[in-house]
Amino acid sequence: MLRVKRDFLPYGRQCIDEDDIDAVVEVLRGAMLTTGPAVDLFEARLSEACSAPYTLSCSSGTAALHLAMRALGIGLGSKVIVPSITFVATANVAKLEGATVFFADVDAGSGLMTPATLLEALDRCGGKADLVVPVHYAGQCEDMAEIQHIAQVAGAKVLEDACHALGTTYMIEGETYQIGACAHSDAAAFSFHPVKTIAMGEGGAVTCKDADLSRAMELDRSHGLSRDADEFTNHDAARATDGEAHAWYYEMAQPGFNYRASDIHCALGASQLLKLESFSEARRNLAHEYDHLFSQRNIPIATPSRTEGCDPAWHLYVVRIDFEALGTTRDAVMAALKERGIGTQVHYVPVHSQPYYAARRTHVELPGADAFYAQCLSLPLFPAMDSEDLVHVVDAVADVLTK
Length: 403
Ligand SMILES: *Cc1c(COP(=O)(O)O)cnc(C)c1O
What we know:
binds pyridoxal-5'-phosphate, disordered N terminus, 2 domains
C-alpha cells in the first residue's frame, strides 16, 4: 500500500495503489471506455464478494437507491420509511419518485433504526408501508431478520442502504450472512464514492436475488432500451419476414436513465475489490484499537455502541461527546483538532430537520436522532492509517477535551 506520510489526517480517504492506476490506464489504452469488459469484471467480483445472486453497477450510490426503489414499485403515493440519521439521498430518491417519506428514529448510541423505532414509524403511517430502508450506519446493521419480519407484516419491501457496509457480515442463529447477499431484504444499494470502503471516483451498485428485479433495474439504468428479442412486443416492426429480429432493432417499454458506470470507473472498482478483505480487516483492527485506546484513558467520550451479531467493516468511527456538559462546543473541538492535523466530520444532520422535509411534515419528535446528532463526531478512519496515527488522534482528543 502506498503510504504517503501526510501531516493531515482527514476523516476518511481512498487508498489507491499502482495496480489500481495500471488497471485504469489499461482501459484508457483499450477499445471500450464504457459498457465493456471492466463492467462485467467489476460486477462479477462484487457478486462474489457479497455472495449476491445479481449485481448491477451504476453511476453512484444515489443512482443505486433510485434504480432499486423504482424497480420495487415505489412511486406516487407510496409510503417509504427511512431513518433520519442518513445521507439525504436515501430519502430524496423516494421523494423524487412521488413517495411520502416517514422518518424513523434511531438508537441514540448506534445511530441505527431499530425494530422498536421502525414499529413506531409504522404506527405513524397507519401500520402499512410500501418500503422500509434500513441504513447500515457506519457499517453496522440491526437484526435484519427482525427488520424484515416487521416490514413483511406491514406489507413493505426492504431495501438496504448498504453504502457504509461493504464487507460487513452479521450472524443469525449461528448462520453468517454477507451484506449484499440480500438474505433478509429485496435489494441492497452500495456507493463507491472515495470516502467509502472501496473507491470508483463516483460509482455504485445494487445487489438483489430476483432475476426480474435485476432485469428491470438493468433496463432502467440505460434508458429502458431492450435489445432482447424475447422482450419485444412490437413483433411486426421487430422481425424480418423470416421471423428473425432485426440486428439493429431495439424497443423501449419504460423510459429510464443513463445511470451506467463506465469501464474507467469499473476498472478502478474491480481492482479495489481485490483489496476488500485487507481494507475491511484494517478498518476492523483500527476500530478495535480506537476502542482499546479510549478505554484505557479517562477521556469523556462514548465509543460506538455495538449491535449484537454484527461484524462491521467500519466505514466510520463515530464517537459521542457531551459538548455542553464539558462546557465547550462541537465547533471549538473540531477547530482544535484541525489545528492538531486531525479532520473530523458530522454524520449526519438529521434528514427530518432539513428545511425541505421540515416544511412538509406534521410535527414529529425523533429524540434519538436529535440526541445522536448533538453528540456525534466522526474521527479519522481509513485503511492506510497506522497505530501511530491512532495514538496521535486519541492524544489530541484527550488534550482538547480535558483542557
Ligand atoms: C454515500 C451515501 C449515499 C450516496 O452515495 P453516492 O455515491 O454519493 O451517490 C447514500 N446513502 C448513504 C448512507 C451514503 O453514505
